[in-house]
From TrEMBL:
<dbReference type="InterPro" id="IPR045136">
    <property type="entry name" value="Iah1-like"/>
</dbReference>
<feature type="compositionally biased region" description="Basic and acidic residues">
    <location>
        <begin position="255"/>
        <end position="266"/>
    </location>
</feature>
<dbReference type="InterPro" id="IPR013830">
    <property type="entry name" value="SGNH_hydro"/>
</dbReference>
<feature type="region of interest" description="Disordered">
    <location>
        <begin position="255"/>
        <end position="280"/>
    </location>
</feature>
<dbReference type="InterPro" id="IPR036514">
    <property type="entry name" value="SGNH_hydro_sf"/>
</dbReference>
<dbReference type="GO" id="GO:0016787">
    <property type="term" value="F:hydrolase activity"/>
</dbReference>
<keyword id="KW-0378">Hydrolase</keyword>
<protein>
    <submittedName>
        <fullName>GDSL esterase lipase</fullName>
    </submittedName>
</protein>
<feature type="domain" description="SGNH hydrolase-type esterase">
    <location>
        <begin position="23"/>
        <end position="211"/>
    </location>
</feature>
<dbReference type="Pfam" id="PF13472">
    <property type="entry name" value="Lipase_GDSL_2"/>
</dbReference>
């Protein structure tokens, strides 16, 4: 039997607008300009607050230093309902070329992903998705470096082969830990003309590339976490068409009463499935 304190805590958390957090490198940081994180936020408007926590240039080694700040475990606020972890493009920079300072060995990369998932689980995040680095268009990386920095390289600082190794490592970690994985390295290369159609500098995403990430991610959310589908998360206030100008409070009372019943049902199910934080 559930204790009243546990049930009340679950109801209180569900009554707040839930959050999704996108945690990653520059491909995530640029996701609102416009990009895949912006499209995710648009799809869940008035239902979920989508928080972008992207850090340009970061690898998993550096990102580990942010875990406790981005995802604190000493707060009264409920944990995010969903977190995406999207690193690897910088980890995969080759150790003997121009971006060597960002390189992280693939074994350490996998270990860092495990540590991130473990931390998120320890604070009660119920849904985690790993996203692999995208493929690399090596000729376009050479062009980008020359145009941006005035440096003509004989070989690129990143290769598609290396990116594929890190994508495989992320996918293996996801399978090991039982979390979904969106393998962009594989999915992008199935799109004809992906080199310029989905990537704008051999690495970062075009508008079409951002749209592709959003659609693939939304499909994965819908498949693996059906309770987080847009249609399953109610809006946090009544629609304006339900408000009677002559008796404004009625629509709000009905909406919040319906929400409360739904939250109580979900809270009971959630508390029955998982131990409380105090028990972890």
């Amino acid at each position: 039997m559930l204790g009243p304190a546990v049930l009340a805590s679950c109801v209180a958390q569900l009554a707040m607008r839930p959050t999704f957090v996108t945690f990653g490198d520059s491909i995530t940081q640029r996701g609102f300009a416009p990009g895949w994180t912006g499209q995710l936020a648009d799809a869940y408007q008035r239902r979920v607050d989508v928080l972008n926590r992207g850090y340009n240039g970061y690898n998993t080694r550096w990102a580990l230093q942010l875990l406790d700040r981005v995802f604190p475990n000493n707060t009264a606020a409920p944990p995010p309902r969903l977190v995406t972890i999207f690193f690897g493009a910088n980890d995969a920079a080759l150790p003997d070329r121009g971006s060597a300072r960002q390189h992280v060995p693939v074994e350490e990369y996998a270990s860092n992903l495990r540590a991130m998932v473990a931390h998120l689980r320890s604070i009660g995040v119920p849904a985690v998705i790993l996203i692999t680095p995208p493929p690399i268009s090596e000729p376009d990386r050479l062009v980008h470096v020359e145009k941006t920095y005035g440096v003509r390289l004989a070989v690129p600082e990143r290769t598609n082969e290396a990116a594929g190794q890190y994508a495989a490592a992320a996918e293996a970690v996801a399978q090991e830990l039982g979390v979904p994985c969106l393998n962009l390295w594989r999915a992008f290369q199935e799109v004809p003309g992906w080199q310029q159609g989905l990537l704008n500098d051999g690495l970062h995403l075009t508008q079409e590339g951002n749209a592709e990430v959003y659609h693939l991610l939304q499909a994965l959310i819908d498949e693996r976490f059906p309770e987080l589908r847009v249609s399953r998360i109610p809006q946090d206030a009544p629609d304006h068409s339900a408000i009677d100008p002559q008796d404004v409070p009625v629509a709000f009372e009905k909406h919040f009463a319906k929400q409360q019943r739904r939250h109580e049902t979900e809270a009971a199910q959630q508390a029955a499935r998982s131990p409380s934080r105090e028990e972890l």
